[in-house]
Amino acid sequence: MMPSIPKGSPVTLTLIAINLVLFAAQFATQDMLTNMGLLYGPYVQGGQYWRILSSGFLHGSILHIGFNMYLLFMLGPQLEQSFGSLKFSLMYFGALFGGALAVLLFGFTQPTLGASGAVLGLAGAMFVALWRQGVSPHKSPVFGLVVLNLALPLLVPGISFWGHFGGVVAGAAMSFVLVSTRSLSQGTALVVVMAAGCLFVPQMMG
Fold this sequence. Notes:
Layout: H1 10-28, H2 32-37, H3 41-45, H4 51-54, H5 62-83, H6 85-106, H7 116-132, H8 143-155, H9 161-181, H10 184-204
Helix pairs in contact: 1-5, 5-6, 5-7, 6-7, 6-9, 6-10, 7-9, 9-10
């Protein structure tokens, strides 16, 4: 039985809609949009900075987007309703930039796309929130899916381990900061630092 459409989760639903629309546009443009928007270190180094953001909203297959949107649908409403839409947005984009930063640091010449980093970042954020409440993260209903998603890059060639891993770490860090300090300014600062890192790192690569 499919879960009902969550109420009070406008950011989650908007993110899902944007991903679906852009996935349709990838087919409509015969992958022109894909080639223009995927993350590839040398292109970012050459000034195509939009790829840092756009790559997080493009996908390689129906299975790819289906899995990511399912996780977003399962995780997003809980976090958005618990933290509020603004803090949830900071978590999501902090994880997106964190995943992109890890790819640029450790997989500079690996073409990468997908919302996996951002979505797994939400899982990292939820695990931290549960841990701080004294609840073991493995009791989360999506724990198995998250572990599988982290393991897939090690088992299936072509899937970005660093994008996944960086997203989880960044999402966990965002949750820790926002839960510990309850400060939007510190959460915003962390997102800015990760985004700045995505701009700075390519310039340091040979």
